[in-house]
Amino acid sequence: MAKGGKLIIFSAPSGSGKTTIVRHLLKQPDLNLAFSVSATSRPSRGEEKDGQHYYFMSVPEFKKHIKNDAFLEWEEVYRDNFYGTLKSEVERLWAEGKNVIFDIDVVGGLRIKKKFPEQTLAVFVKPPSVDELKIRLKKRSTESEDKINMRVAKASVELATAPQFDKIIKNYDLEVALKEAHAMVKAYVDGPEPASNTAEN
After folding, report:
1. Which residue of 27, 72, 135, 145 is most buried, as measured by CB atoms within 10 A?
2. What's the pTM value of the predicted model, to 2 decimals?
C-alpha cells in the first residue's frame, strides 16, 4: 500500500461523542481532512446512506473482501457484525492530497496505529463515566436495552485501552473537547512530515 499523508484516528466506546468531534473537525478547512468511510455488514439505520456513512455489504461480500486482503483492518465486533477500513478508501483520499481522519472502534484504531506508527495520531475520547455513557446511548433510542447493555459492557473493556493511544480527550464538556481536539490535530498536521518508513501492507 502506497504511503500518503497523515492519519488521525478517533476511537472511543459508543456514546462518548467521538462522531460529534470528528464531524466538527471535518468542517475546519485549516486541517485539510477527509473522512475515511468504513465498510460494515450491518444494515443501515435511519437516514444512513451507502458510501457516505458506511459502505454497506452483506456478510458473504464482507468475507470475500477479507479473503482478498482488501482491508487495512477489520473486526467482527459482534457475531456476523463486521466493520473494516478498505485500503482503497485510504489510498483514494491520499491521492486527493488529504489527511485522513477515522471515526473507528478501539481495536481498529490501534491496528492502524501499529501499521503506520510514524504517520498516525491516535486519540482516545473518554466519556465522563460508564453510567453517563448508558444515559447517552438510551437517549439515542436506536437500539434495544440488550444491545445497549452489550455496548456498555464492551465500553468497560475499551476504556482500559486508553493508555495505548497517543492522546486522550476527556469529553466532559463538549465545547472544551472540540477546542482541545482542534488544537491537537492542528499541531499534528502542521508538524513535520512523517518519515518515509517501509511499513508492510
Report:
1. 72
2. 0.85
